[in-house]
């Protein structure tokens, strides 16, 4: 038998112990490899370190490069007091792990009670309380050498690990570092994917909020939607939208959520001099975030209101217009101290841009509506002012007609004047109806119309213009008469507009030809010229309202004439089209109109002289325009009426009491006492209670007609009064049913 020396026996025991440690390390490695989640892996690493080191306790710390600190993420065997003391360790900490962090190498203290590291330090008491007598700290390093953390093991008795134990610990540290680095990368990837998913979801909510906003039509609805979206995007508890009054330089609340009247009154107007969040944002033009109003010194004047309203944090984000000017603020409030994340604020900025664009769009639309409203008021006023002088002119013509003047030479002139006045009156009506053209609301006064007669009247209206342009007009109508059921004046207007259009684009010496023919149950009117023609790409747009077509440098006019032609023709159930072979080759406008089955009856409105009808009744005319009142009185007297004239409401009431009229023509737009007030007072008089009161005014729009009837008038007539309507009214008043 061979004898084994003591030295050999010790070596064998060391090898055996090291082999046993390697076996334990292998088992530990298998457990580590199976640890998928980072927290589970960290627990397994410190468990393995304590096991392979035969230690009683241990900690695993991870390193944060930003703060240069170690933080305990897993431990074995320690009480809360120890863990709190070593919760974070900086590289300037005198303890073991701080020294290892500072030197970048393992540090071993085999007897804490004798180590200068702990003598006369608060840490000595902590170590004694935890019954720690020996400790070592081994760095964990990533594959690139960067520090990942620290494995520290602790013993209850003085102890110094031998070289074999330290080799085993180094192997464990190396394997643990690789696994921790891999898990950290996986965790970073998982967090990145989760962050991306959350960001995608948030962007989806942002897109939905923007879509909801842009579907709204009014600014008020938009303000409420902006507030709801902002509160949702930031997860706020309450909020408000403020709009800047550029004139006064103050912010006013336009929408709010979660606030009572005291808050709204307190912040009713906010100026740039205020130190509230919105005041600072107004002053700087930048977002202001106050994460705790109780800790913000400048917020002291508003702190009590914040307490009463129930918020601790607030942010105010500017709404900036496309020109850089401040439009208002989006403010949100939180019940607890809070600071929105960078991602939340970035999304809020995107939404604020959308909200600012919406505000500008609404304001632009409102400005357009205001321009349109002013245009309508202007056109109505202009038409009213034009009707007033037309009234005595037309009344004078009617008087001349009823006086049955002798002399054949006067008749054609009188007829021309009558047609031109009638046409001028209708043009004034068209001035009011320009906006109605697009809606197709022009009213037709239908009757049997001879197309040939309408052509002749249109020629009478335009022949001076055609002659002035040195253009030859050729009329080549069909031998067959075409009877339409339509509005004579409107059809004349259609033909006259086409002749005017042809004249404008035909050079001196050119020719305009007007023809008619039948196509089935339609009459086809063609106005052709040999002028400058129409480019093929413009043929489809010449009938659009306000279309400006450049035809060889010739001015295109206002773009109303042909649009009116198309609208009027379609109202008659017809159609119109433009044709041209190209520039320099003339143009043709074809109008198709349905034929009427009704026999034509001549309508004597302004036709041949009629036998004068004599009526005997009392009529009162009240109008502040003297010429209009006197001319109407003359016309009424030609019917045998007994007429009195007043030029004010007060005078009209006086004459009503004295004269007891059966019929009253009352102007609406009089100064001092208008027609509405005069009619009201007249109805209260015994002498005016049974009278037929007719509103005679230059205001002819539907709104005025409704107001007239609501005010108690019996009828509404537009100046200048139509002779047929006037005669009907006179007969109805003289011979009631």
TrEMBL record:
Domain Response regulatory, first and last residues per copy = 618-734
Task: Specify the superkingdom.
Answer: Bacteria
What CDD domains does this protein's entry cite?
A: HATPase, HisKA, REC_2_DhkD-like
The 4-aspartylphosphate modification is found at 667
Question: Which reaction is catalysed here?
Answer: ATP + protein L-histidine = ADP + protein N-phospho-L-histidine
Keyword set includes Phosphoprotein: yes
The UniProt GO MF terms for this protein read: phosphorelay sensor kinase activity
Q: What class of enzyme is it?
A: transferase
Which keywords label this protein? Kinase, Phosphoprotein, Transferase
Show the stretches that span the lipid bilayer: none
Note whether Phosphoprotein occurs among the keywords.
yes
Record domain Histidine kinase: where: 381-597
InterPro entries, A to Z: CheY-like_superfamily, GAF, GAF-like_dom_sf, HATPase_C_sf, HATPase_dom, His_kinase_dom, HisK_dim/P_dom, HisK_dim/P_sf
What is the designated name of this protein?
Answer: histidine kinase
**What's the source species for this entry?**
Methylocystis bryophila
Taxonomic lineage from the root:
Bacteria, Pseudomonadati, Pseudomonadota, Alphaproteobacteria, Hyphomicrobiales
